[in-house]
Amino acid sequence: MTALFLENCRYVLRSRMVLFVLVFSSIIHYSGMKFLNHVTLSIQGAVSILGPKEAVYTALIFQIFTSLCIAAVYGIWMAPYAHRGERGVLTHVLPISKINFPICYLLCCGLLLLINQLVMIGSYTGVFGFAAVLKPEFPWWLLGKTFLFQLLCLEVVMSGLAVSSLFFGQVATFFIGGTFIFVLQILGAIASVFSGKPGQEVYSSTGILFLIYKNLPPVGEFLMDIKKLITGETVGVAHWLLWFVWLLIFNGLFFMKTKYPTQERSTEA
After folding, report:
1. Burial of 247 (C-beta count, 10 Å sphere; 0-12/13-18/19+)
2. DSSP letter (8 states) at residue 78
3. Domain presence at residue 30
4. At what angle do helices 100-128 and 2-14 cross, to 10 degrees?
5. Domain residues for 61?
6. Tens digit of pLDDT for each residue in 17-76?
7. How confident is the model at residue 13 (pLDDT cuts 50, 70, 90)?
8. How many domains are there within the chain?
9. 44: left (phi over 0), alpha (psi -120 to 50) or beta
10. Assigned domain for 134 exists
């Protein structure tokens, strides 16, 4: 298990994924917060600037975007890499328990997401200084809870994309995953509008579409749940549990699929 995890870490380094995370995330976070630091707002004649407190919430938006990109890249291209084509045949005969593969991929993806979180905090510190980070009112606890929830959700996204990539291929998964996430976001917005309470989902007892949606990963409520956590509210246990159940489902499917190497029509280099 340890050897497999270290080998996956070496693969991540060789693929320059860590460099991609550091450079891409740093550019997005630092340039975004640097720009916001010079933005002024005029409300009824009163001019104000976006200070460190407001920048935390904006930085979180950048962090969600970059984390989603990392999870997508890792799930579509990196996790299935050793299990496709001729590589899949070689990986299949290795004397390693197949359950170790999805576990190691979860750990590696989680490590990349943690690096992205540290880049966000580092960029925030670079723009606003250590004094802003060391203030007692800096929301360390809220950021920690938000990161744990993000980690669970994005690991589910990564695992789902990895399974889809094994079954349908990387290119098809790119479009399938994007469409699926978009549709779930739309359904989540519709559910919130019908409830009359933003952030509170409601499902029609007769609508089969919403009955199905109710049991899918709550992607449509993801951003609203993040907003709740960063503002000190709580996310319902049902959402935590539903994300965790789908994490088990996707990784169970990945485990079963790795028992049977995927043969591709085209010859890979």
Report:
1. buried
2. I
3. yes
4. 50
5. 2-257
6. 888 889 989 999 888 888 877 766 555 555 555 666 677 888 888 899 999 999 999 999
7. confident
8. 1
9. left
10. yes
